[in-house]
Design goal:
The chain is mainly β. The protein has no helices and eleven strands.
């Protein structure tokens, strides 16, 4: 069973940047970032396939960049031009194999991290 450990969350002012990291303990086929704000459902933010292709939610395109260091089994999410609407708990997720589920649907993923909080103040 792969374990995921996120880090890098924190508080930042609007317009600022943060980089999240997610260390995986083993092989994964695809990995993604999700977020959940208080009182809202879990929302897909970005994902990356094993071959390197990526996919972003419209709300973060042009502001967030997902990347992966395969040698370190680590996933990153670089977030810039942050707004208060980006405030949420951010979760790392990993899938073990190809899936028919959409790239930013929770059903695609087999294992989840514990989350890291991102708070953006105006």
């Amino acid at each position: 069973h792969v374990q995921l450990v996120e880090s890098g969350g924190g508080s930042v002012q609007a317009g600022g940047s943060l980089r999240l990291s997610c260390a995986a303990s083993g092989y994964t086929y695809s990995m993604g970032w999700f977020r959940q704000a208080p009182g809202k459902g879990r929302e897909g933010v970005a994902m990356i396939y094993g071959g390197g292709g990526s996919y972003y939610a419209d709300s973060v395109k042009g502001r967030f960049t997902i990347s992966q260091d395969s040698a370190k089994n680590t996933l990153y999410l670089r977030m810039s031009s942050l707004t208060p609407e980006d405030t949420a708990m951010y979760y790392c997720a990993a899938g073990y194999a190809a899936s028919a589920w959409g790239p930013l649907t929770t059903d695609r993923y087999n294992v989840w991290g514990q989350g890291t909080q991102v708070t953006v103040s105006s």
